[in-house]
Model the fold of this input.
Amino acid sequence: MNTAEENKTLAPWAAAMPAGWGVTRLDAVADVLFSNVDKHTMDGEVPVRLCNYVDVYKNERITSAIDFMEASAEEREIRKFQIRRGDVLATKDSEEADDIAIPSLVTEDLPGVLCGYHLALIRPRLSSVSSPFLAWLHASKSFRAQYEANAVGVTRFGLSQHAFRAARVPLPPLPEQQRIAAYLDASCAAIDAAVAAKRRQLEILDALRNSITQRAVTRGISARVALASTGNVWMEEIPRGWKLVCLKRISEIQGGLTLGKQYEGPLIERPYLRVANVQDGHLDLADVSVIELPASMAAGVELRPDDVLMTEGGDLDKLGRGYLWKGEIPGCLHQNHIFAVRCFLHKLKPMFLAYVTAAKYGRDYFEATGKKTTNLACTNATKVGEFPIPLPPLSEQEAICVHLDEKLSELKHLVGGIETQIATLTAYRKSLIHECVTGQRRVTEADVKEAARP
Done:
């Protein structure tokens, strides 16, 4: 055991352990191994399945339901890194220091499944520490803070075996460890079920938002609509009195600034938008880049209020999605991977265009006409210009925008409330784990029975 002062310095929660609890190093109650079994399949080696980094990072429990990767290993590696029921696996590196030592508990014997590279295999000595308790302990952000403090790296952070072995572990009596684990199993399962139900509500609201938007921009807001044929494959019918017009006929499509050029002569400094600034349904202006260029060139790529921003490339489902620029940053320019669509205001309202591009109709057009690669897609000014816009009279466009502003604002309010509830449940879950594994909340048999009730 370490001295009380040592424990307080290395793990602040250790200064207030309940009576009967101890604090020790992890290697006093568990063996720690770093796997070197990679994902390659080699001739002459034994076929195995590999529990890899993503399996652990995304699952709190390792079970046979996971689709493990096929690989191969030597006999000595199989003997050393075959995972067993009760093992705790933890990630030993990450892109962020505060996202490290994420645990997962092995809840079944899984013959032929090995602990993979980038993982630490922690095998508890069951006479001293409960496996589920040790897994819940590693799920505590405050416990993992000592790993974060010992992570080394610049663009990717890693932990040494010493950092795991020297980690300070709160150690209640074994029966209390088992009660804590059982209580957290039941309580966190209930919280997770509540969060899942809230997320399903968000999915329903998102589907409703899409349905309301689609109906309004393609059929209007009247209860009964008489339709007329267009002869166009993208939208075969529109309400009588509407037109179907290519976007290039009712707007100017402005290309953006190509980066990397070298300029001569007097230069000015101006902010400019990148694709990363144009998000799904909002602008992220927290990090806006600046560029030096001639004033004459800046004038040709400057954004104006009421421009509709449309992305040229990125994820397929976000291709061409429009968002209204309201002049948030004076004199702002835009990169060439963003189009600025400048509506002819006597024909097309900018907000109506933004709603059309966000609707399923707009998404279908850009997904179908976009040039696709393995992970990304792109469009071009020609495809944007050929986008067929369902065009009501201006007064009806205005009425549709007012209708959608009101309806989507109501949905946004509901979504915000549910997201707040999810955040509260998530914060409570984290707090509950911390309080239980550090002894701030004492768990009784009655607590365990109460938590386990349906």
Q: What stands out?
A: The radius of gyration is 29 Å.
